[in-house]
Amino acid sequence: MSGTGSEVPAVRGLWTSRVAFILAATGSAVGLGNIWRFPYVTGENGGGAFVFIYIACVFLIGIPIMMAEVMLGRRAQRNPIDTMRDLAIQEQQSARWAWVGRMGIAAGFLILSYYSVVAGWILAYIPRMLGSVFHGMDAIEVESVFTALISDPERLIAWHTIFMVATVAIVARGVEHGLEKAVRYMMPALFGILVVLFLYVLTLDSFVDGLKFMFIPDFSKFRGESILAAMGMAFFSLSLGMGAIMMYGSYLPKGASIARTTIVVAMSDTVVALMAGLVIFPIVFANNMEPAQGAGLVFTTLPLAFNSLPMGALIGTLFFVLLAFAAITSAISLLEPPVAWLVENKHWDRAQAARLCGGVVWLLGLGTVFSFNLWADYKWTQKLDLGKVQFLLWENKTFFNIVEFLTANVMLPLGGLLIALFAAHLMKRESCEDELALDNHHFNLWYFILRFIAPVAVVIIFLHTIGVFNMLGLID
Ligand code: PFF
Asked: Which among 369, 407, 357 has a CA at the least distance from the CA of 164?
């Protein structure tokens, strides 16, 4: 990186942009997915085996596809729809590849619709922590506070609205600078509180139970769909398969190493998720709680930990404030692709585009709000009829469960699969070599994984899931 005097500004520019990319991408990756979703889905899927497959998916599917997304984004410097179209045309392929970008944007709308509602729960916990509402409560009492919150649609709508308004306001202004600062200071602080919580759970007798639950596979609790859930979790947590990382790829200047930056982001993301699990499960076992209780897991366990800490109310308040910021930096990356598309392609005013997209997301979010109260008893079972064979897509799921399943477990992996196929099979090898600038050995490794291992793994996991339903006799 040394050079003549005239190169210095460029080198400095490169360096700050590389950091800007890492911060923006980490801001997107680290969020509710790590602290809310990873522990609860791990709990529902029996722990160890799920965690093992999740980690394998991060390394064998997630990191190679993340590199591909960054590479495509940096090459085209556009929103995901135009990136896919421009690159397809450049490589003499069909402009229909733009549909990958469109599906990604649809996935982003749907994800943000429930993401915002859950972020609303986080916001709702801030005044509760500050007011020491949980002080002296046992597990059952904490659970009743959470249940009271999610049973009240008006309150949920209010918090969901506040979160969406904040997200829209930031995206309307353009994101880069605030985002960088927020991530630079808030993320380490959030991680710091996780470390404090970790030190606390180390003192619990149930720490070993939590550790065993997380890392020793127990296949009796592993469900057939758990493999799909683990892959979906990897995509969700790394923000892959919908173009968010592709958008942020344009932050990265030509000279910066895609491989190294990607690995930093993916590793930080995984460490935060594992840390959240390591904190939550010992609390679950110490209080005889149910690890498979579902989406409320973090909200019913963490207040108990803060109760036992000195200055717990203050640390707890700070934790939920920081988590709300982590959620907003992820939400921005979900809203940015459609807004960028409306601005770049349709020449809309940025603020207007942000407001319209935010409005659509807000409306969709009402479905999630009602899933926990007014519509809690509406559960759907859906079959896919392909003539001779019928597949059971889902069984007994609420609106929220369905949207979550469709986005995380179907749309993101499908988007990732198409991105992998495009980058590794349709783009010229030289284009990839040029963009990644890796040494031969590492390039070949990445290319092989992206060409064969990642897509085959995604397809096998999809087929396996259908097969599992079959074996369970769930298909007529
Ligand atoms: N990765 C985010 C999280 O773990 O909270 C959620 C997310 C953001 C998913 C952006 C997908 C995405 F495109």
From this structure: 357
Residue 454 CA to residue 338 CA, distance in Å, equals: 27
Q: Which residues contact 82 (CB under 8 A, 6 or more apart)?
A: 76, 98, 101, 341, 344, 345
CATH H superfamily, domain 18-377? Hydantoin permease (1.10.4160.10)
What pLDDT was estimated at residue 71?
A: 96
332 close to ligand 1 (CB < 6 Angstrom): no
* Residue position matching structure tokens 């529902």: 44
Centre of ligand 1 from the C-alpha of residue 95, in Å: 27
- pLDDT tens profile 21-36: 899 999 999 999 999 9
Whole-angstrom Cα distance, residue 58 to residue 34? 13
**Tokens 């809310």, located at residue:** 36
Closest-lying ligand 1 atom to the alpha carbon of residue 273: 4
Decide: 32 in ligand 1 pocket, CB within 6 A.
Answer: yes
Report the separation in Å between the CA atom of 250 and the middle of ligand 1, taken as the mean of its atom positions. Answer: 18
Label each residue of 417-458 as H, E or C.
HHHHHHHHHHCCHHHHHHHHCCCHHHHHHHHHHHHHHHHHHH
> pTM value?
0.93
What pLDDT does residue 175 have?
A: 65
- Joined together, the tokens standing for residue 445 give 């490794």
